Amino acid sequence: MTRTYDYRHVVTFQDTNVVGNVYFVNLVAWQGACREHFLRDRAPGVLQRLRDELSLVTVSCQCEFLAELFAFDEVLVKMSLVEALHNRLDLRFDYVRVSAGAEELVATGRHRVACMRHDAGQLVAAAIPDELRAAALEYR
User: Fold this and answer.
1) CA–CA separation, 30 vs 132, rounded Å?
2) Nearest-CA neighbor of 103 among 73, 82, 79?
3) Which one of 30, 86, 90, 92 is most buried, by most CB atoms within 10 A?
4) Maximum CA extent, the chain
5) Dihedrals φ, ψ of 99, to 5°?
6) CA–CA separation, 77 vs 8, rounded Å?
7) Which of 16, 8, 137, 21 is nearest to 83 (CA)?
8) pLDDT at 42 over 80
């Protein structure tokens, strides 16, 4: 069984559209929030490097919706590592609605991020920082 880094989100009206369900782009935004909380909690040294020379560039992301979410649903976004290769991390996200102790998978997603560094005004590939690689491998 794959270990996951879990980010808990309670849906608010701000997350919903005029119909009352969660607006689809918010699930993609929660991938970014999950990744950022992961950095804060598991690889804080990378945050300082992001202020200096390092950039984490989202190369691609996707989300497949399986069920609708509504205001005040509690969602657990579970992130795991699919692959760490060269300067790239491929991440998987499972979105689980938690209600009365039961869990329901409501969406799945993928996210690819590339490690880059600034060099003479250009972004060039950079190795995955050791701290980030080690933290990510714990969730494979």
Assistant:
1) 20
2) 73
3) 30
4) 54
5) -145, 120
6) 6
7) 137
8) yes
